[in-house]
Structures are given as C-alpha cells and as structure tokens.
Amino acid sequence: MAVYLPMEWPAEVRPPGSEDFEASAVSWLMDVLPPDYRRHLVLRRYPAALASVARHYALASVEGARRSYRNARVELGVSLPPHAVDGVHAALKKEGFALAATARAVELVERAIRGETFAPKL
Q1: What are 74-89's pLDDT values in tens digits?
Q2: Which stretches does DSSP call E strand in 1-122?
Q3: How high is the pLDDT of residue 44?
Q4: Residue 46, CB half-sphere, CA atoms under 13 Å: how many?
C-alpha cells in the first residue's frame, strides 16, 4: 500500500513506515541545524527531540529573515546605495521562501516521527 505524502515532504526523507524512514529523517533534520548540533548524541537517539529542536530553529530562521527584510532599508539605507538595498531585499525574499518551505517540511517530518499519518485534502 502506498503512503500518501504531502507536497512539502522533503525528498531526502523516506516515507513513514519504510525501513529507512527514521534514519533518513534524522540525517535530514541534522542538516537543517547548524553542524554543532551533531555533537549531541541525545538528539540522534531521540528523533522526536531532534525534530522539535529543528522546528524551533527553522521557525526562528524564518522570523530572522523576515525581520532582516523589514529593517534592511532603515539599517542599511545610510551605508548602501538604493540598488544594493534592493538587492538585499531580493536575496532575503528568495531565502525567506526557502526557509519557510524548510520550516513546513520540518513540521511534517516531526508529525510523522510522532506517528501521525497523512491523507490527501479534497
């Protein structure tokens, strides 16, 4: 029987219930976090804890990008020309979308680690 996965499911993570699901989820979640988190064996041992930490980190990254976007003109306008500030805005917008997609994917993986199953929405 095929497992339904939402569109935002990360390609690097095997479907829930598959043999490699947990290992692939842990590996991908570790990649979401800064490298120093790999030193903490408790996070590898308890994937639900790792997913929770990764969710908070991803959401904070999204908020940081949004705050940077909102404040760029005020903070950088005195030291950068207008076209450079526009470039910073464009970069933050692009990265913000990517960070938001990662945050949604982390949430899905966390839900699956906790045993939730997914069904298509009508």
Answers
A1: 999 999 999 999 999 9
A2: none
A3: 95
A4: 7
**Residue closest to 37 by CA, chosen among 25, 54, 22, 24:** 54
Q: What is the chain's alpha carbon radius of gyration, rounded to the nearest angstrom?
A: 18
Q: Which two tokens stand for residue 51?
A: 């997913």
Buried b (16+ CB within 10 A) or exposed e, 21-51: beebbbebbbebbeeebeeeeebbeebeebb
| CA 105/CA 87 separation, integer angstroms | 27
| pLDDT score at 122 | 74
Residues in Cβ contact with 103 at an 8 Å cutoff, skipping those fewer than 6 apart: 55, 58, 59, 61, 62
Query: Where are the domains positioned within the chain?
Result: 21-113
